[in-house]
From TrEMBL:
<feature type="compositionally biased region" description="Acidic residues">
    <location>
        <begin position="121"/>
        <end position="131"/>
    </location>
</feature>
<keyword id="KW-0812">Transmembrane</keyword>
<dbReference type="Pfam" id="PF00420">
    <property type="entry name" value="Oxidored_q2"/>
</dbReference>
<feature type="transmembrane region" description="Helical">
    <location>
        <begin position="30"/>
        <end position="50"/>
    </location>
</feature>
<keyword id="KW-1003">Cell membrane</keyword>
<dbReference type="GO" id="GO:0005886">
    <property type="term" value="C:plasma membrane"/>
</dbReference>
<dbReference type="InterPro" id="IPR039428">
    <property type="entry name" value="NUOK/Mnh_C1-like"/>
</dbReference>
<feature type="region of interest" description="Disordered">
    <location>
        <begin position="110"/>
        <end position="144"/>
    </location>
</feature>
<feature type="transmembrane region" description="Helical">
    <location>
        <begin position="70"/>
        <end position="94"/>
    </location>
</feature>
<keyword id="KW-1133">Transmembrane helix</keyword>
<comment type="similarity">
    <text>Belongs to the CPA3 antiporters (TC 2.A.63) subunit C family.</text>
</comment>
<feature type="transmembrane region" description="Helical">
    <location>
        <begin position="6"/>
        <end position="23"/>
    </location>
</feature>
<dbReference type="InterPro" id="IPR050601">
    <property type="entry name" value="CPA3_antiporter_subunitC"/>
</dbReference>
<keyword id="KW-0472">Membrane</keyword>
<protein>
    <submittedName>
        <fullName>Multicomponent Na+:H+ antiporter subunit C</fullName>
    </submittedName>
</protein>
Length: 174
């Protein structure tokens, strides 16, 4: 392989690995996938900048011999954006770990309901035609807030929570 083919192959591999990791339910893998996408984008911008040249700000070289400063500015911007989103994902991972002692996003009841109705078109569904347990939250006849609090207190009695405003939760599936 020639050097002109190696860099695009590496960029494509980083993008493929990043997308693969983004599709996982583990938040740590999502973070790693996002970091790989950020690095692949930086390499893509660097390769799009063309060959290196002299510094454009000094004015010693002719315009054809100078480096293009735009890709460098875009790479710096991409680094800052990647850092900001990575720190946000780290905060989500930490919060998820503190609440449920696991960093994997679990399958909840709404996911199961959607999977059961996957063959139904969303335009054909009228909430009034669905069974009460399949109706979306905040529908006219959904469970009152007092009943929700009573059910949560019954199901999670004695399980400590680290947040005063949130009900206690369990890490395992029922």
């Amino acid at each position: 392989m020639t050097p002109t083919v190696v860099l695009p192959v590496i960029i494509g591999g980083l993008y493929a690995a990043g997308v693969y990791l983004l599709l996982d339910r583990s938040l740590t893998r999502v973070l790693l996938g996002f970091l790989l996408l950020g690095n692949a984008t930086n390499l893509l911008l660097l390769s799009a900048g063309g060959p290196s040249g002299l510094a454009p700000i000094l004015g010693y070289a002719e315009p054809g011999e100078m480096s293009d400063p735009l890709p460098q500015a875009l790479i710096l911007t991409a680094i800052v954006i990647t850092f900001g989103i990575a720190s946000f994902l780290l905060a989500l991972i930490y919060r998820s770990w503190r609440l449920v002692r696991q960093e994997v996003v679990g399958v909840d009841e709404e996911d199961r309901r959607v999977a059961r109705r996957s063959s139904t078109d969303a335009d054909e569904i009228d909430p009034d035609d669905l069974a009460p347990e399949d109706r979306p939250a905040m529908h006219a006849d959904s469970m009152p807030a007092e009943d929700v609090e009573r059910v949560l207190a019954r199901d999670y009695a004695g399980i400590p929570s680290d947040d005063v405003d949130l009900p206690p939760t369990r890490g395992e599936q029922r």
